[in-house]
């Protein structure tokens, strides 16, 4: 995956800027490296909240919508290796800490095409994410929109943001294939 990181960053950056402007929220690009998630890029819309993540910040994949979107695209054996190495530690009381519960959630994410983080990484923060894959269904990263729980609810959280993410990840995926 290492050789695709600069490429996904370059291809995704203009789309992330547009998504942040359109939603007004915090938009993130995360990739999997050494079995953890690393934030590769962030864009802040005008109403974006300040959070503790920054470019280069590493997180457990199971504790973010971004990471779960990536995990859902990986083969089960690879997810098992990640869990074996890093465990499923809880950063908030909402984290999944049981292996089978995580695999059930990853099945849901694959079916829906979108991952949600309901105050799993930080109290008061909700997030919606989608994986960026290529023509060979290989995952290169994930893009998310994050905001306060008060704003990330109802049809905005369940429908509008997921639809915008689908458009953006499709564009990024297509552009990665042609860049």
From TrEMBL:
Residues 1-178 form the IclR-ED domain. SUPFAM superfamilies: GAF domain-like. One of its GO terms (biological process) is negative regulation of DNA-templated transcription. Pfam families: IclR_C (PF01614). GO terms for molecular function: DNA binding; DNA-binding transcription factor activity. Coiled coil: none annotated. This is IclR family transcriptional regulator.
């Amino acid at each position: 995956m290492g050789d695709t990181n600069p490429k996904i960053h370059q291809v995704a950056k203009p789309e992330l800027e547009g998504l942040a402007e359109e939603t007004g929220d915090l938009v993130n690009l995360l990739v999997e490296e050494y079995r953890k998630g690393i934030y590769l890029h962030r864009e802040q819309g005008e109403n974006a909240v300040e959070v503790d993540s920054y470019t280069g910040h590493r997180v457990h994949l199971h504790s973010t919508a971004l990471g779960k979107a990536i995990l859902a695209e990986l083969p089960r054996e690879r997810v098992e290796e990640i869990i074996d190495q890093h465990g499923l530690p809880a950063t908030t009381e909402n984290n999944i800490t049981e292996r089978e519960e995580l695999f059930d959630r990853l099945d849901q994410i694959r079916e829906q095409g979108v991952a949600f983080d309901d105050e799993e990484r930080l109290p008061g923060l909700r997030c919606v994410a989608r994986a960026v894959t290529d023509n060979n269904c290989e995952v290169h990263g994930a893009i998310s929109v994050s905001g306060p729980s008060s704003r990330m609810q109802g049809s905005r959280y369940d429908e509008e943001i997921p639809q915008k993410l689908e458009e953006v990840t499709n564009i990024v995926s297509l552009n990665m294939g042609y860049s």
